[in-house]
């Protein structure tokens, strides 16, 4: 585990909590140190504060996501929608807002690792226009070119594809993709849907594949 938090007191609390859970923890206080450690060691999960003294957490998240599909859980000092959504759209998989209980953070991390370590969804190949989804191979392509998705984006797309034509609520997607329905909220789903659309839709501002059904949720359409 890599913990990136500039407040030494909070960093110490997180480290002790995760040590108690049996995790091997490396903790750093800056974005530069985070990138250096990440490049030098095998990291299973990153806990990343958004407010860092040098490189801000959003940029660190983008750079980590560009290099790796490692699970990223962001820490936000506020439950401000802008910060949370910006962090998710930078590539994070989940978030916890400060102040938080150490047990909550550990539980959220366990859920994230369990979900992403459970293997990719399996099944037949799905085609939606020029988009092809192969769950068993763990690949998505558009116009024959492979599309780079995070594990969370891939699992979300597979859930929508296997239920094509059916409206899935945010609560259902949280439960099926994130593995819980009481620790998260709809912003997780909305932010990941927006990122997914930028990768598979011809015009993300006018989506034809993953559509919003107002007041209900999201549906995968066959063009």
The structure class reads alpha/beta
Percentage of residues in DSSP E strands: 15-25%
Number of strands: 11
**Radius of gyration over alpha carbons?**
18 Å
Number of domains: 2
What can you tell me about this protein's structure?
- The protein has helices at 8-20, 31-40, 57-67, 81-89, 102-116, 151-162, 170-178, 186-200; strands at residues 2-4, 26-28, 46-49, 72-76, 94-97, 126-128, 131-134, 139-142, 145-146, 210-213, 217-220.
- The termini are far apart.
- Helix 1 (8-20) crosses helix 5 (102-116).
- It has 8 helices and 11 strands.
- A 5-stranded parallel beta sheet has the order 2-1-3-4-5, sandwiched between helices. A 4-stranded antiparallel beta sheet has the order 6-7-8-9, with helices on one face.
- It is 42% helix and 18% strand.
- The protein has 223 residues and is of the alpha/beta class.
Can you describe this structure in just a few lines?
By secondary structure, the chain is an alpha/beta fold.
Keywords:
four-stranded antiparallel sheet, Arc Repressor Mutant, subunit A, five-stranded parallel sheet, 223 residues, 2 domains, alpha/beta, Rossmann fold
Helix and strand arrangement:
Layout: E1 2-4, H1 8-20, E2 26-28, H2 31-40, E3 46-49, H3 57-67, E4 72-76, H4 81-89, E5 94-97, H5 102-116, E6 126-128, E7 131-134, E8 139-142, E9 145-146, H6 151-162, H7 170-178, H8 186-200, E10 210-213, E11 217-220
Parallel strand pairs: 1-2, 1-3, 3-4, 4-5
Antiparallel strand pairs: 6-7, 7-8, 8-9, 10-11
Helix pairs in contact: 1-5, 2-3, 4-8, 6-7, 6-8, 7-8
């Amino acid at each position: 585990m890599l913990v990136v938090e500039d407040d030494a007191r909070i960093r110490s609390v997180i480290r002790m909590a995760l040590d108690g859970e049996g995790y091997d923890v490396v903790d750093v206080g800056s974005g530069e140190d985070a990138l250096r450690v990440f490049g030098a060691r095998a990291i299973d999960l990153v806990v990343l504060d958004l407010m860092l003294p040098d490189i801000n957490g959003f940029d660190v998240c983008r750079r980590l996501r560009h290099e790796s599909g490692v699970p990223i859980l962001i820490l936000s000092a506020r439950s401000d929608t802008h910060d949370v959504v910006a962090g998710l759209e930078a590539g994070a998989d989940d978030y916890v807002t400060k102040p938080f209980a150490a047990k909550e953070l550990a539980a959220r991390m366990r859920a994230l690792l369990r979900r992403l370590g459970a293997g990719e969804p399996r099944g037949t190949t799905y085609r939606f226009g020029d988009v092809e989804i192969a769950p068993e191979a763990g690949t998505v392509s558009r116009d024959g070119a492979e599309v780079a998705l995070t594990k969370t984006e891939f699992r979300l797309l597979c859930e929508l594809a296997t239920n094509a034509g059916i409206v899935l609520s945010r609560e259902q997607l949280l439960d099926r993709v994130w593995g819980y329905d009481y620790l998260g909220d709809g912003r997780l789903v909305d932010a990941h849907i927006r990122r997914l659309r930028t990768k598979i839709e011809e015009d993300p501002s006018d989506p034809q594949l993953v559509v919003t059904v107002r007041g209900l949720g999201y549906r995968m359409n066959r063009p």
